[in-house]
Amino acid sequence: MIRMGPYSVYLLDAGRLWLDGGAMFGVVPKALWSQAKPSDERNRIELSMKVLLLCLEDRKILVDVGAGHTFPPKLEDIYGIDYRHATLKQSLAEHRLQAEDITDVILTHCHFDHMGGAAERVNGSLRLTFPNATHYVQASQWKWALNPSEKDRGSFIADTLEPLKQSDRLKTLPGECELFPGLHLLLSNGHTVGLQMVKIQDSTSTLFYCGDLMPTAAHVPLPYIMGYDIYPLTTLEEKKRYLNQACEENWLIVLEHDTEVDAIRLKRGAKRIEVAEKVPI
Ligand SMILES: [Zn+2]
Question: Is 152 buried (19+), middle (13-18) or exposed (0-12) by CB count in 10 A?
Fold first, then answer.
C-alpha cells in the first residue's frame, strides 16, 4: 500500500494469463525479448492482471478488473487464464471488500483482460459484477469496442460488454479530465482508440497507471511495442512523450501486466531511458 494525496493505493492480483510472446513484443526478435520474459512450449509469456484499488473516504475505486470468469473453455485454454494465485474477488476480500462495496470502476479500455471481469455469469445469464459502481470508459473506446476492426476483434468479447451496455451504470467520457480530486485521466490512442491512463498527483509525487501503453518493465525500450497495437507509430510517439515526462518528474509507473515488478521509476541512461528502480506496492 502507498499513500498518494488523499488516496490509499493498493495493487490487487486479479489472476494471470499467458499471451503469445511475439505478439507482446511486436517487431522485437525473440532472441532479445525472451531474455527478459521466457516463453512456454506454446511460445506464450506469463502476464499478471493487476488492478488498482483506490480508497478515498467512502469511495472504493477500481482501475481495470481483469479478465473475469465468463470465458468459453477454448479461449480460456488459448489465453492460459489462470486463477490459481488469486481472483479479483478473493483479493478484494483480503481488504474486507465485496463487489457491492465498489463505487467506481475506471476501465482503461475494453480489451478482455482489462474489462472481462466487469461481467459475471449468474444462473446462466450475464450481469454486472460491481452492481453499485459507475463505470467510466472513454466514449471513443466504447464506440470502438462495439465495432472493432478485423485486426483487433479478438481482443474484445462482445458478450461481456452487454450488461454494461444495458445498464445505467456506464459513463462515457469525452476526453482527458480530472475525474476525482488529484486523479487525472490521460489519453493514449496507439494501443487502441481512447485508452485512458490514470495519473494521481500530490504535492511531492506522481503515480501513473499506464495500462497497455507499457504493459511490463521489459517494454521500456521505445521499439518494444505490442503487435496488438492498432497504431504502433502513435504508441511510439506517446511512449516518447510519457516516458520523458515520467523520467523528468520521477513518476512512479505502475505496470499492470508485469508478474515480477509492481512499479518502476525511470532514469536517463547513456543511450536511452532505463529502469532506475523497481518499487513494490
Ligand atoms: Zn489492451
Answer: middle
